[in-house]
Amino acid sequence: MGMCYSSQNYQPDRPDEYTEDKQFPFVPDGPSPLIAGQVEFVKGISGRFRGLKCVRKTILDDTEIDKENLKRRLAQEARILHSARHCHVIPLIHTYFDNRTDQVRFSIVMDRAETSLSECLKPKNFDNKRPKLEWFGCLIAVIRYIHGLGIRHRDIKPTNILIKKGRVLLADFGISQMGLGKTMPTTNLARNASRTKEYCAPEVDQGRTRGRSADIFSLGAVFLEMCIAYYNPEDFQQLESILKTEQNQSYARNIDKVHELIRCMKLRLEDGTWQQNILCLCMEMLNSNRDQRPSAEVLNLGNQLTCKCGNNASLTKADKLIEACKNGSTNLVRRLLDDGADPNTMGAIHLASDRGSVDTVRVLLQAGTYVDSLNATGQTALHCAARNGFVAVIELLLEKKAHVDAKDENEQTALHGAAAHGHLKIVQILLHAGADIEAEDLDGDKAVNFARRRGHDAVLQFLGSSKTGRLANNGII
């Protein structure tokens, strides 16, 4: 069924709270509704949801002491999922808390698809369910979109790419970081445990922090399988034998052999074919060095494979503000704010800062945007401007008392980002503003480690001299 349940004022990312059986608008659908774990087929039985066929994912937690804080975090994840509205993202239908017990039970109801990409990648289905060529461009488009919003998927794999009416739909992101409702663990082993080993990037497999580049690696693995399924299914058996050389299937742990397979496949193709272009892109995306992978913004397979679907999701005022900030359209941002758009819309000031639009950032701050507001990954506007080298934006944000040592979900500061991308002037400004040169992220890395790893010698030298100077001033040396 279509999205006829929707009304102009209904916001599925604002959870309802139910205390009685008769209040629940969804019930299990069919004799065997359970899909996996706490995921099941459901159908709508009342109100705007009557007759809808959906999927419900329930997050359970009976260990959290501060239940209200947990509920706020879960509701925040629902807002993140809803903010990623796109023609290639599975629609969010409803969210609610089941308050019939002391246990925190949070349910997210999403549209139901017909199948997943994993079914299209099974050799027995190649004749009638082979992946469509245009899906490559569609997946690039949706990853580019969510990354632009500051959202990382964290678990890209064929089972999380759904198919409905011939269209690919990205699913189970945002909520994929919630696990069973626990806070994100910080130990290496625990941070690694909930990820799908087969498709995760090497740094994730090793328990290190996850960035957008980890999504790119996983998508590269999916692209390789799609390419093989589309034009040369005979290579699937060889790929499976490579991945199964260890107890757990893993691209990350067998990446050299995967690269060798790709090179052999390329040799059988003529230069300039779409297959060879995809394989070349897969090699780049599957780079074991996360710093060498392309970003979603530069992924390109040529006009033939560019997504032509268009994002037909209906735009709210918040959506329009996000687009205007992304495009640096300061006058449009001003008009939207005058028309009632929320200046604290998640991601708005971050996108403006990310693009270096100092005038747009100034308009947002004048309209009441909180200077240290967080995006989907816990970053402030200062993080976004620092990693992209926009000095004027940095100076404006610091003038407005931005927290110079604010940490994102990986406990990285703006200084980490500036050092990692070689922006010496911004490193100098941040340190002058009191940034902590010794701040460590979840992996124990300081800004100097990022500068050294990426070969930014000028930043490395300045950080070294600044540390020495501070030690001398404090009488330590």
UniProtKB/TrEMBL annotation:
Stated name of the protein: Protein kinase domain-containing protein
Domain (Protein kinase): residue spans on this chain: 1-306
Presence of the UniProt keyword Repeat in the record: yes
Superkingdom as given in the UniProt entry: Eukaryota
Extent of Polar residues compositional bias: 1-11
MF-aspect GO terms: ATP binding; protein kinase activity
Per-repeat ranges for ANK: 344-376, 377-409, 410-442
Membrane-spanning segments: none
Disordered: annotated segments: 1-20
Species classification: Eukaryota, Fungi, Dikarya, Ascomycota, Pezizomycotina
SMART domains named among the record's database cross-references: ANK, S_TKc
This protein's UniProt keywords: ANK repeat, Repeat
CDD domains, per database record: PKc
PROSITE patterns from the UniProt entry: ANK_REP_REGION, ANK_REPEAT, PROTEIN_KINASE_DOM, PROTEIN_KINASE_ST
